[in-house]
Structure formats: structure tokens, C-alpha cells
Amino acid sequence: xxxxxYLLPLALAAQDFSNYTVEKVTANxxxxxxxxxxxxxxxxxxxxxxxxxxxxxxxxxxxxxxxDAHGPSGNAFDERGRLYTCETALRRVTRTDKSGxxxxxxxxxxxxxxxxxxxxxxxxxxxxxFTDPAFASQMDSRELDFFGIFHISPKGQxxxxxxxxxxxxxxxxxxxxxxxxxxxxxxxxxxxxxVDRNGAATNERVFVSGIPGVPGGIxxxxxxxxxxxxxGISIYTPQGKLLKHxxxxxxxxxxxxxxxxxxxxxxxxxxxxxxxxxxxKGSFQY
Length: 286
Known about the structure:
Blueprint (H helix, E strand, L loop, with lengths): L5 E5 L9 E7 L5 E7 L3 E6 L4 E5 L6 E4 L5 E6 L5 E5 L4 E5 L5 E5 L1 E2 L2 E2 L6 E3 L5 E5 L14 E6 L5 E7 L3 E6 L5 E6 L4 E7 L5 E9 L8 E3 L5 E5 L1 E5 L5 E5 L5 E7 L5 E6 L3 E5 L9
């Protein structure tokens, strides 16, 4: 795998978004997804069709982190540095500890296998949330008769947050962990839920609608601005007002803040991984 880098000037306007550059960090993937930044100083992301999780350390060529990763999609780290992965091929969510031990956290609901867990976020106190849509051939082998959003408690209990009209995709939390955002690829919306201290999510509502392209991954910065991957990156205020739409040369699938200061936005796309340096930090909710 070659390491490729080029610069694409891109003027951004409004608030902190001005005079930035989109960089292509690496390429030659079949479908890159699920970027997650480790506080140990590296980025993990999935190459879904090739069943691999890739590790990228800034300044070094990408390397294979995990082979035979069962169709990995979304990834996230918790406060203890453990890796959560949505494995679409085996229809489950796993957690890998620092020693490399893999634990299955979720694979069935009410005795039936999940559809194809897609994206995941972990709150600072250990509450995790993931989306469970089904795309393409995944639709042919579904056991559940709905698309869902699920909650895993710190004790490992699985709960259903919502059955959605349309397929949920990306998922993120506000910096204080009190609002959960979920993108809906079919409705081209982002939904919002209120989350209490016990992790229960209620009060479903539409946060934004009419998102360009097919909305995928979501991330939130320290100011509460919401970044949605789709036909480029759309950035919204906490009130749902569009701040800026960033064009890319291919559709974006997901994104993650990274680097030591959390001011770099890493973006996975169909064949490549990009990054943009910002003047605002990402939220610690991953």
C-alpha cells in the first residue's frame, strides 16, 4: 500500500472555517470507513470489503492493524483505550482490550441476529450506542424486521433506543454527552435524542434535514458544531444552522478528530483518507 499525499486548496468561511486545506493522506482502498483516533497517537480505520482495519500514524506509512476483521465498519475508543468495532459480516459489536483480547458485546436482539452494526460511539462513562441498518446484500439475510439504534450499558446490557423509519448510519454525542445524534441515510436527516445520566435516550426529533448526498458518519467539535459526512462534509451549528459545506473529490463515509491537539479532521471516503487542519478541537466523546 503506497503512501500518497497531495494538497487541494479550499477556502472555508464563517466562524473558524477559513483558509484551510484538504489533504489526501492515503489511498487505494475499496471502501474506507470508521476512522477513530487513539490517544496513543494513531488513527484506525476500516477497509470494509477487504476485511481489514488499518493503522495510520502521522508521518509514517499506513500498516495493517487487523486482518480478517469480519467486514469492519465503525470503530471507537473508550476512555480506557479499548477498541469498539462494528463487524458487519458477523453482525456483531466487539470490544478489544489493550492486550488484544476480543469480547463480543452485542450480536442478538430478542433472540434474533442483528442486521449489520454500522457505526458506534462511546460516552466517557462507558455507555455505548450503535446503529444497525442493512445495506445491499445485508437486506437479504435480515432476521430483525426493523432498523435500529441500540444502547450498551457499562455492565453490558443491550437496550433498544429506537426503531427508525429509514436506515440509521452515523452516530455521535455532544461534548457533555447529553444529546445523541444519528444520521438517517434514506431520509437524509440527522435525528437527535436526549440522553440522561443512566444512558437512556428519549425525545426523538429531527435536528437537520436535506443533507447533501447520503449522510454517513457524524462527529461533534468542542463548541457543539455537528459535522456530517455525505457529499462532502456539512457543518452545522448546535441549533442546526448550516455553517459550511466542504466539497471533496469523492463521497465521504465517516470522520474523526485527531492528532495530539484534536484539531485535525480525518475523513474516510470511497477510496481514500483525507484530513483538514481546523482552529477548533473535536469533542472527547468518541
